[in-house]
Amino acid sequence: xxxxxRDVEYIAHLARLExxxxxxxxxxxxxxxxxxxVAQLGEVDTVGVLPMAHxxxxxxxxxxxxxxxxxxxxRFQANSAAVADGFYRVxxxxx
Amino acid sequence: xERQTLAQLSAALHDGSVxxxxxxxxxxxxxxxxxxxxxxxxxxxxxxxxxxxxxADRLLxxxxxxxxxxxxxxxxxxxxxREVLTTCGSKMLSNFVSPYDAAVVEDLAAAGLVMVGKTxxxxxxxxxxxxxxxxxxxxxxxxLERSPGGSSxxxxxxxxxxxxxxxxxxxxGGSIRQPxxxxxxxxxxxxxxxxxxxxxxxxxxxxxxxxxxxxxxxDAALLMQAMAGFDARDSTCADRPVPDYxxxxxxxxxxxxIGIPKEFFDEGLDPASAEHVRTAISVLxxxxxxxxxxxxxxxxxxxxxxxxxxxxECSSNLSRFDGVRFGYRHKDADSLESLYKKSRKExxxxxxxxxxxxxxxxxxxGYYDAYYLQAQKTRQLIAADFAQCFETVDIIAGPTTPTPxxxxxxxxxxxxxxxxNDIYTIGVNLAxxxxxxxxxxxxxxxxxxxxxxxxxxxxxxxxNFAHQYQLQTDWHLQTPDLARD
Lengths: 95, 485
Prior knowledge:
- The complex is a heterodimer of chains A (about 100) and B (about 475).
- Chain A is about 35% helix and about 5% strand.
- Chain A has about 100 residues and is mainly α.
- Chain A has a domain at about 5-45.
- In chain A, a hairpin with a 2-residue loop joins strand 1 and strand 2 (about 85-90).
- In chain A, helix 1 packs across helix 2 (about 20-40).
- Chain B has one domain: Amidase signature (AS) domain (Amidase signature (AS) enzymes, Alpha-Beta Complex).
- In chain B, the strands form two sheets. In chain B, strands 4-6-5-10-11-9-7-8 form an eight-stranded mixed sheet, sandwiched between helices. In chain B, strands 1-3-2 form a three-stranded mixed sheet, with helices on both faces.
- In chain B, helix 2 runs antiparallel to helix 3 (about 45-60) and helix 10 packs across helix 13.
């Protein structure tokens, strides 16, 4: 199935990826061939088959709601390009 | 210097014929000599390694050393290492210094291994050739113009060329077994959930599993002993006892059953490689194992299934890279949305972006049932085929890859051709099974891998078969010219 330029622009927006005009033809081409490959699955008879989310037959473990981590904010924030007063800085969101 | 196994180095360290400092200095010297040719390492941690080696030598002198104490090792750069650059092969994390250690890193350090550096890899482990790395491709030590495979290509090349005796890797669709096959070493992927994923940068969380790249199956067993086990920090880590892997290596394979899936010997398989794989299976038959044909009727659907499931999980996992808390950040964004979009455009490479977009598409409104749900159902059928085979056989054997190592650049512009290279390995990830690739011959001077697959938590069986095969053959001892000096 061939994707259109608009499809690719929409997917890129959902994925929060900027795609420039000179890249778009290559994405249309390669993503279309990938979708062609995976669309072969339509031929598999899966009537009555339960979906498998996970290879192990296990249920989600729970633990007591207790504090187990110490505060390491300073160490973690050392990896951010923009912090101030213990907060992460981003462009202005509210006018 | 000849390449040495972990078992050989362990004996030498314990009898005092070599010190950890000497072994570590030798490894660092070989990295300095050969890495300019191979590009196998992203980061070399020389000072830290020598300090760890000296600490290991003190433990050895005091008689407090374990079997792996003092042995140099490299980690794939997907494992977080505290206070060391952890890039995952991406520009996105080219400035990321991890605040903590991955469980695998902790466990192997606790066992006394000495980390000498972090190895190159396909970006976020998405690739089968190492060509998607932001740090450039890795060369195959058998032919520098060829790919070592991927995504654990740096780890594989480093072990094959004798830069380190062992390295860690991760395997989401074949990323340990395929590079091990293409560089002629032993690559072991345990059962999903056997080794903690804590601190292993996530690609596809229902498929990702840590494992080993070593010269021998015996060495894989030694490393697995230190890596396997329950970790509450990984919500899908299996809480079950870890057997003594080394103790089972010497078990006889006589009377055990090997299943050969007819679908693995189709027209896509290079005939010369097929011949080596069949010969390898006959070696096991010579040890008294019984061979029978089995069928995995849905295995042909494994490539499309994987390339829905893995991108879907990747699109979700990689949403955390937004330029805010860590990683690459675009400098001049004028809105939050443009900060996300521009940071991700500039921080991710082409293949990662294709996978994020494929995953976003198959999960998007109107397509979810046709793609993602259908893939999850097909995954169930693929896993059930394997489970049915293991009702009658102990192990499944076949090729690891359709061909020996391909040339760098040969497939990089055609993602679908690259994906088809994973045809024999990815069913194992979808079913969550343990698998190994061991060297079984050469075609035109390039190594060929024999893959053996075990039932869920059948690590001991897989390692036993691989070890028994290596006792009969010397393919795993063949060394590339580059590594013989």
